[in-house]
Amino acid sequence: MSNELRYDGRVAIITGAGNGLGRAHALLFASRGAKVVVNDLGGSTRGDGQSSAAADKVVEEIRAAGGEAVANYDSVEDGAKIVQTAIDAFGRIDIVVNNAGILRDVSFHKMTDGDWDIIQRVHVNGAFKVSHAAWPKMRDQGYGRIIFTASAAGIYGNFGQANYSAAKLALVGFSNTLALEGRKYNVRANTIAPIAGSRMTETILPKELIDALRPEYVSPLVAWLSHESCEDTGGLYEVGGGFFSKLRWERTQGHTVRLGRAITPELVKSKWSTIVDFAKATHPADVAAALGPVMDNVNAGASKG
Ligand code: NAD
């Protein structure tokens, strides 16, 4: 098929690719010609233990189908070693899919420092370590695609997931800044918030849903965002079960108090219905746009004063 999206000559690292979503991403990239580093620590969903079996199995699957892949068993916390595996095996790195993840679900009042720390370490520090090691190589070659894996729990909050929600939304801000810093080097960064049946969700979702929400339904978006013909960057996408969509911030028109007047809690209360009214909402897309009304008010105050 002539219009097939191909990744020949590209090298992709997929973290946490021994199971679930990462495995599906790895198989798709490899089937389209990419050389794949299948990273997986091989631990439990809680992050306990370690094994080479998960990554090895996916590498075998890829090779059996005629693709190219190598395994890496390091934790994403040792991201530089994972990038080194790509360089040693294939000589370059073009695509990083930050996908590895674990859960330590517990209601906030019972959450320990350990529950909090390990989640930040794997999701946030892990994505930092892998991306940071790949970044100079992507900049130098003028090409790179980085995907972050957030979650609806981070966007909307979810009971028992304060640690995970914080980590997942951190990745959105992280990705947005890399999108800005990478733009002129043709390094694009995007974030997905997926839903899929996997060992991570099998204890919370009913069996019919697990079967219906196949990880393979998420990977095509990751592949498209990682393709050289996709220019989009700094996006956040919800994806799963055949549904694909993009999210953005929405802001009310708000209320502006001319500077010089008393700004009191009573004033905020009296204007509350306007402050929270989305009828004339806008969608600021960057810090400059977000600061627009603030600067207009400051400048109006300065020109009067
Ligand atoms: P999964 O448990 O099937 O796969 C995650 C993989 O990451 C596992 O193979 C695990 O061994 C690996 N891993 C864990 N810690 C690692 C580390 N430190 N270094 C390297 N590998 C490590 O889960 P999944 O559902 O496929 O989740 C993949 C990603 O998607 C995670 O980041 C998860 O938070 C996110 N996510 C999943 C869903 C969903 O519905 N499944 C929803 C939102 C977000």
TrEMBL record:
<protein>
    <submittedName>
        <fullName>SDR family NAD(P)-dependent oxidoreductase</fullName>
    </submittedName>
</protein>
<feature type="domain" description="Ketoreductase">
    <location>
        <begin position="10"/>
        <end position="203"/>
    </location>
</feature>
<comment type="similarity">
    <text>Belongs to the short-chain dehydrogenases/reductases (SDR) family.</text>
</comment>
